[in-house]
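ok new one. same drill as before - structure tokens go in, u give me an amino acid for every spot. 171 of them this time. try not to just spam alanines like last time pls lmao
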């Protein structure tokens, strides 16, 4: 492991890795930092706040070159490239009923977006809501704030009971 304290973190909310780099998202600074596996802060991080002007970002997803951030005030998923530029293919999740998107994961063209108010995981493809989402409340997660997956399995972090729930996409 390694310390991130020297990077002026206030409240780290998300982490992703490709086994050689680690991306860490910090809420008060609304910034994405990049570390190598030894814990050295790498260049290439950027401020999300400076681009979109909102501090209401809950987490992020990456494919090693691009980043997606769910923003809870506008119910929108922003898409950034590695240089920190906001790309034009972000999408609204409010039309699907999501009012508080706090976390997301991506695989190929699918996005799975966790909504903490609805206790629901929405599935999007190409910015359009798809069937296949599911309730997190039915598995016991009533205050879900984190989400990750591999293949067909999901792990959902619930802050109310401090438990990580494991389920498949049918809930």
């Amino acid at each position: 492991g390694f310390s991130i304290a020297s990077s002026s973190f206030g409240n780290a909310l998300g982490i992703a890795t490709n086994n050689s780099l680690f991306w860490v998202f910090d809420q008060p600074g609304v910034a994405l930092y990049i570390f190598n596996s030894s814990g050295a802060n790498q260049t290439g991080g950027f401020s999300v706040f400076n681009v979109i002007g909102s501090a209401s970002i809950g987490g992020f997803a990456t494919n090693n070159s691009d980043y997606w951030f769910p923003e809870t005030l506008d119910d929108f998923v922003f898409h950034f490239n590695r240089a920190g530029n906001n790309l034009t293919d972000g999408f609204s999740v409010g039309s699907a009923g999501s009012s508080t998107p706090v976390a997301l994961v991506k695989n190929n063209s699918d996005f799975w977006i966790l909504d903490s108010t609805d206790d629901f995981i929405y599935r999007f493809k190409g910015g359009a809501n798809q069937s296949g989402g599911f309730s997190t409340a039915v598995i016991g997660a009533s205050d879900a704030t984190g989400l990750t997956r591999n293949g067909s399995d999901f792990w959902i972090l619930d802050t109310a009971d401090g438990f990580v729930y494991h389920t498949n996409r049918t809930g």
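Residues 49-52 form the longest helix (4 residues). and btw Helices lie at 49-52.
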